[in-house]
Amino acid sequence: MTAAQTLAEVQHVYRTGRTRNVEWRLGQLSALQQLLEDHADAIETALQTDLGKNGFESWVSEIGQVLHEIKALRKQVASWAKPQRVRTPIALWPASSKIQHEPRGTVLVISPWNYPILLSLSPLAGAVAAGNAVVMKPSEIATAVETLLAELIPQYLDPHAVRVVTGGPDVVNQILNTGPDYVFFTGSPRVGSIIAQACAEQHIDYTLELGGQSPVYVHDDANIRTTATRLVWGKFFNAGQTCVAPNHIYVHQAIAEKFQAAVLAELAQQFGPNPQTHPDYPRMITPDHTASLAELLAASTGTTLHGGTIDAEQRFIEPTIITDIAEDDALMSRELFGPVLPIIQVTGIDDAVHRINQRAHPLAAYVFTESNAIKDSFCDHVVAGAIGINIPVMHVANPHLPFGGVGASGRGQYHGRWSLETFTHHRAVLDKPTSCDTIKLLTQPVPGWANRLV
Ligand code: NAD
Hints:
Helices cover 42% and strands 17% of the residues. It is α/β, with parallel strands linked by helices.
């Protein structure tokens, strides 16, 4: 069966109305939870194969996150499915007004390879919770996870209303040409533009969860040790292949030396003397992705303060710290998406904010300081999808916060209630009884209106 036929089948099932039922929605969430609990070991193995993730990292950042999301959604499904009564202006009386939370219809979920479980199943959970039928296309690059999802999803979820299709851009194009009602895309800004254009041509609504160069500013009053611990963790988690990973650090020049020393101490603490043999240090996704980042490193004119060892065949890049680089250095030309961290000295917050705002709006921006005035100033002046104060990455783990970008880093948001909003059409319904016909007053000729014009 082609991908286009799969979508057509799912559209047919959606039109029967069965996915709108609250019991169906809750059943799908329970089935997804069961799948994760029954197959956590197989999922961890697939993530180990694709990305070299250890079991703890797989649980914390993928399986556990989806379970968390399912829990948050389950609490809200029943009340969300009910219409919301709203007031009616006196001029429209007698009448009643309500907002119906309509599912979008058939949703195409397209996901990337870096968190291939989380970024496939978390949108899926939101889409079914809101009563949609779904076609999910995982990344063809994380092959072990792609295969596993294609095998497990039909065993647990409604096999007619929730389908997995495998493959790359051709498959996406086939489905887009068949006209899904909604597209939820997570991936690069480059492909995001392609998806947005295809959707615009067919008037398909969409969400884009994209990436960018999430920057950090470390102020001169920051708690240096804690800052180094948290930034080394946030940067090198999943070997830097995280959409909200710190891309580069602007550090106040007054503390730059001390901060760099703390970062080196922290690297030794977290990954030991030889990260290549450290069991918990992940790999790049492919030899090509490794080689591409190696090329950027080779083209950089910066100083290698630490690391730099690369083994493309083994998909290994040592945690690498680069200093003394300019804003137009090769390493600053794109989202690094790997374990390479430029550290740039700045004169203060104004200098850092100016540099941040010269670039495309990032998915996240981080500030490390003890000063409320600096925190406020950073929040007031930096445009970013999210802001982390003294903590990178972790805002993603709070289902009560919306997650999404702004400008080049995305359009729309999800997680928890925000997923329900995203996968729902808010439909206005005005119900006016025929018994007392006030509309008669508006039909031609309107009494007194002609006189008013002379
Ligand atoms: P990608 O854009 O290359 O691929 C994402 C998906 O799009 C894949 O399923 C792929 O098959 C499909 N695709 C690729 N080319 C296509 C085309 N020409 N037409 C139609 N579909 C196409 O992204 P990636 O390399 O898998 O992931 C890395 C990027 O994703 C980074 O930029 C990262 O920051 C971003 N990302 C964002 C988030 C977020 O939540 N905002 C999360 C993870 C990753």
